[in-house]
Design goal:
single chain, 252 residues, alpha/beta, 6-stranded mixed beta sheet, 10 helices, 10 strands
Length: 252
């Protein structure tokens, strides 16, 4: 039997005297789209920081395809096949859209950082970057500085950077935050496309996005998972309704 793509086993994290993550256990299958939802301050972003290596768990285990990443640094976890985006857009704003993507594909193609290498001669890197550019719908913006893109385009570029390195497990933190309804619809279509045959874990507040995209959902409240299951199971869960005051989940 194949190991889960991502597994958390009784993970805990404390800041000072306050325990933020209180014994979280999750198992996410390869190829699954999994949403983590919960009220503000529930610990969702802290979970992402633990999984991606920005924070170190106080106890418990985090496994990526059956291999422990609990004590690994972020760049090591990335090279093992996990990539993440952030709530705040994180781009090289003065580089072009294409140059941002080319930076993202270099390591996955086996190139190491060198001041003596002419990047314009790396045809395979250019080809891969252009393929991602086409996939995220920004070909016409290829040579525009990333900082001049619209907000929705910047989010699309960040998703492109996240997948460009070939990671099989993708973490997206609030991918549609701040978008209009039409921008959100395009973002959902993009996410669905680019995560095909990959494992997606996302934190998202928009319930229409969650229930329209996720195969499974976990609800986190005060650092604990109070429910985990298929979207229809989460809709019907009494504890979830109580956590959302009987409104947000029911209305989705």
């Amino acid at each position: 039997m194949n190991a889960p793509a991502l597994q958390l086993l009784d993970v805990r994290k404390r800041f000072g005297r306050t325990e933020i993550i209180r014994g979280v256990s999750l198992s996410i299958a390869a190829g699954e789209r999994h949403a983590i939802i919960g009220p503000n301050g529930a610990g969702k972003s802290t979970l992402f920081n633990l999984v991606s290596g920005r924070f170190r768990a106080d106890s418990g285990q985090i496994l990526l395809h059956g291999r422990s990443i609990t004590r690994h640094r972020p760049f090591e976890i990335n090279r093992m096949g996990l990539a993440r985006s952030f709530q705040i857009t994180n781009l090289f704003s003065r580089l072009s859209v294409f140059e941002n993507l080319r930076c993202a594909v270099l390591w996955s193609l086996g190139y190491r950082y060198s001041f003596w290498r002419n990047l314009n001669q790396l045809r395979d890197a250019e080809t891969c970057a252009d393929e991602v550019l086409e996939r995220i719908g920004l070909r016409r913006r290829r040579n525009i500085q990333a900082g001049l893109l619209t907000y929705a385009e910047q989010r699309a570029l960040e998703i492109g950077i996240t997948i460009a390195g070939g990671a099989k497990v993708i973490l997206l933190d609030e991918p549609t935050a701040g978008m209009s309804r039409s921008e959100t619809a395009r973002a959902v279509a993009l996410i669905r496309d680019v995560t095909e045959n990959r494992t997606l874990v996302m934190v998202e507040h928009d319930m229409s996005v969650v229930f329209g995209l996720a195969d499974s959902i976990s609800v986190v409240v005060y650092g604990e998972v109070i429910a985990s299951g298929r979207p229809d199971e989460i809709r019907a869960d009494a504890k979830v309704k109580e956590a959302y005051l009987g409104q947000r989940v029911e209305a989705a």
